[in-house]
Amino acid sequence: MKILSLSAFLLSLKLSLVGVVFSLHISKKAEREINKVFEIDNATFVQTLDQDIPGIDKDRLYTIFDQGNALGFAYVGEASSQTDTFEYLVVFDTNFAVKKAKVLVYREDYGSEIGSKRWLKQFLDKTPNDRFAYRQNIAAISGATISVKSMTNAMNNLMISLASWQNNGKPNKS
Amino acid sequence: MNFQNSAMRQLSNLENSENRITLGGYGEINFNGYDGKPNEIDVQRLVLLFAYKFDDRTQFVTEVEYEHVKEVYVEQAFVNYNITDNLNARAGLMLVPMGIINEYHEGPTYNGVERPSLDGKVIPTTWREIGFGIAGRSNELSFRYQLYAMNGFVSFNEDYVLRGSDGLRKGRQKGAESVNSDINFAAKIEYYGLPNIRFGLAAYSGKTQTTDLDNAATQVGLTMLGADYRYTKGRFSSRGQWVKTSLRDVAAYNTAGNKDLGSTMGGYYIEGAYNLLPLTNRQRLDIFVRYEDFDTHKKTDGGMMANPAYHRKETTVGFSYHLAPGVVFKGDYQSKKTAASDDVVGQLNFGVGFFF
Prior knowledge:
The complex is a heterodimer.
Chain A: H1 2-12, H2 24-38, E1 44-47, E2 61-66, E3 69-80, E4 85-93, E5 98-105, H3 117-120, H4 145-167
Chain B: H1 6-16, E1 21-34, E2 40-53, E3 58-67, E4 71-84, E5 87-95, H2 118-121, E6 128-138, E7 143-150, E8 154-156, E9 184-191, E10 197-207, E11 209-210, E12 221-233, E13 236-248, H3 250-257, E14 264-275, E15 284-299, E16 311-324, E17 327-338, E18 345-355
Parallel strand pairs in B: 8-11
Antiparallel strand pairs in B: 1-2, 1-18, 2-3, 3-4, 4-5, 5-6, 6-7, 7-9, 9-10, 10-12, 12-13, 13-14, 14-15, 15-16, 16-17, 17-18
């Protein structure tokens, strides 16, 4: 697999999530969270894609490594809240099952309830074959409708994009 | 704008992140059909929202409101400074966190053409005051908090203004050249850690404001407590609210001003709604029923007889047809009675509301 064969070289460069798209603040938060999810200290990251695919920028999807072993994937997305945007992190295992969904940065008060750990748990263990629909299989939060719908749609679109990518033969699951 | 996929939306958002100004708005245009008096058609409110982001931590939010076309108010105007993920400092003209509607009052967010009457006579929506304080949340514990020091209702502004029929409503200062003699405190905590339901508990405490600092009879003390819930599961939704206001030194105030202010006011409403359309539809057609029971003369002081006409019982039955997220067409019938007689007064309402 191309990614893994490159990994030793890339690891030596100690690439981190500091990309062009995210501020240092966000990437540090994301790194901390990813380390926590896998109970490791120094996850390293390699861009999973060498070019954008429909629905996913190459700058937003990373393969997570610990000491040369691929542990999973991390996606950092952005979605709309009422008057602003927020960043979220989705951590997947190597089979693209969700291990963690977290709101990294939320910039306004209105709708900030979606950061609730309890609410985000609804996405756990879901895979690209799952679909999410507001009020159907994803609970509403009264008073945070705009952000709840926005996060639900973002997660749904992410799964659709990942599924179509997988169906085109990628990634090569190892 | 319609985005074909998340990436397009995200890219658009990335571009917009340079765009520091947000515009929004909401409003309601209503028809009220009365028994025995002329009907009314009104642009009840049209509110324009502006937000400006100075940097990632510092934001200014304001809502400019036109009521009945010709009255202009500033409904909110505050600066929010984000200190940490869990803590914001705020100052300016802010909504008082009490009950549901005072903070969440955009037409598509509630059922009924008119706001619940409890949110008018007891919680005088839209209730806003100038002050400062902190607000924030905990993602771990799924709760949100607000704590503000604020200006309060005016009870005497060259004349006595509070009265029995609607309690504190005439005392709202709306941030316009407001009289300040005493500081008041408002707090609310909300818990949303259980699936589908959200609870709120609010408290407000202090003293009314007066222009006659030497006359103690021009002021009353007050404590307001509120509890509310909102539940949504599948096609069913429900909400309810309870509020109780206790006033002090009311007898002296009523005597000095020849007023009939009650010393305890309060009540509740409870509402259930069911969406007739499948959840997969983009549109929603909620039918609902709401029952309200509240009294602005729950208790009176100084030997004053409670006025049974101030004890209202209202039932509202109707529908909210959500044409698109953010646009609603509403219709309902209200039957209102008081403890003073068995007569029921009917009212038919239709309205359109929007929020973007």
